[in-house]
Amino acid sequence: MQKKSLLKKSLAILMAATMTMGLAACGDSGDSSTPESGSAGGSSEAGGDAAADSGDAAGGDAAADSGDAADGEEAAGDLFGEEVDIRVMVWDRGNAAPGTTTEDNTLTQWIKDQVKEKFNINVTYISVPRSGSDDQLNIMMTGGQAPDIVFTYDQALYYNYASNGGLADLSDAYAKYGSDIAKYCEEAQPISMIGDQKFAVMKQRGTESARHMSYIRKDWLDELNMEMPTNKEELGEYLYAVKEKGLGTPWGMSGRGDTEKMFIRFVGSYVPLTDDKTAYMYHDDAYIVAAPEAKEGLKVLNQWYNDGLITNEFPTDTTEDAYKADISNGKVGFVLDDVYNPHASFEVLNNEIGHETFVPIDCFDTPDGSYRTPFEYRYAMFVMVPKASESKVDACMKYLNWMADPSVAVNIRYTPDHETTEQGVALDLKDEVRQEKGYPGTPDDLSIVNLNFDWVNDYDLMAQVEYDNQATPWTTLEWRQDFYKVMMGSKYRYPVLGAISEDEQTYGPDVKNRLVQFVYNVICCPTDQFESTYESGYSELVNAGLQKILDGRAAAWDAQ
Predict the structure, then answer these.
(1) Same domain, yes or no: 24 and 156
(2) DSSP assigned state of 116
(3) What is the pTM of this model?
(4) For 212, phi and psi rounded to 5 degrees?
């Protein structure tokens, strides 16, 4: 009974904050949607289950938190206290500079020195492989061996820890020492509240970005004497024309099993989200595939696949190597992907051909004729302190709050040796400089609180800086400007609640994996077997817990 009461209370409080910020009015799985190397945007690796806040300014509750935190920190006085040791999780991607490690490098040493000098806190980093990091975190949490600061993008995992007593309550420490988090990362914080307790510090994203984006070969359109498609019907006409002309594979796809990025916006565009409850139920993870109207989108993809418009046997390309090579070699005419993922391949192709090829496009019209581009939420990862580290909560909060200061955050994200443009925009170090100086391959992995720098959502400035600092001249300034214009044209954020139902915690990860494979199966089956493949596959999803998840979401929305 206590757990149900907690659930209802947390829903009510979080939704009050959500309504204030206008979430419902706005809108990894898979890979990160991060600007390419050398750009000025704060990167934001998206976890599949990460839900989000609005990009609008936070409302009254967050403002009150900010004031309380500021008052508390003043009362706290000198932040240099008794010596404390804390251990902090860090991802290991296997890209440390020569002679360094993920835990011990120029950037980690800089952070350690700063934190020791300011707070008398000794920091030790504990590396966790990026691939499968949540599994490793579970093992450490279960065995009582987790570092004092841990993180995940998975909201269900966070809620499971919090609701089962696995996390320390950060409320008091946040009030005393969290003023910079409240000031600079306020948009992200409401989702961390469960009832009146705060169990995580939310990382604030940098550049607001769509989750996925489409690109089309403009030079092929010109060769075919066709206009830019404005809807799915016109896209189909282009794809068939590409095949008939023999230009290449009309639609390039890969078959990664951990992401819905190759199909979700197309299939989701068939689903009318008539109200916020429906939008919440069929959130833009793979769940929107479960909406009844999604079947029509899957049927179209099945027809196009069997007509030779989509990469043959694409599900076997689980590493994306063939997909990226096809783009680089000019063999495909349309892609749907994470926003930045194909840019490196576009660069190779443009430089080889000598002119621009792919351009961004929004042609997935919804049933009412509008467009819907799901955006990442303003929060990223859940940064937590395990219950076993409760005695170190104050020290952990000092560390995290220090990281929220933009002057600190920019030095972590871009390294203390970064350069800035005349407009004050920070730039990534060149790879060879970064390695020579002993910085990690991904400094962003140590920046676990704040990427919300002043310039990151000035899109004209971002376009100019990215153009000025591209490694090779593969785009024009106009291309960069159009990129942001197309991306921002139909911005949408799905509504979100702070609590996750027990059924979603139990069945969610397995169902999401099954959903992706289900879609691949129905796309690639023979056309005359579509109905039977769809029905049998959907029944398996229901048996795996899909309907329980959807029912739980509907009940949670009604209860808030």
Answers:
(1) yes
(2) H
(3) 0.79
(4) -140, 160
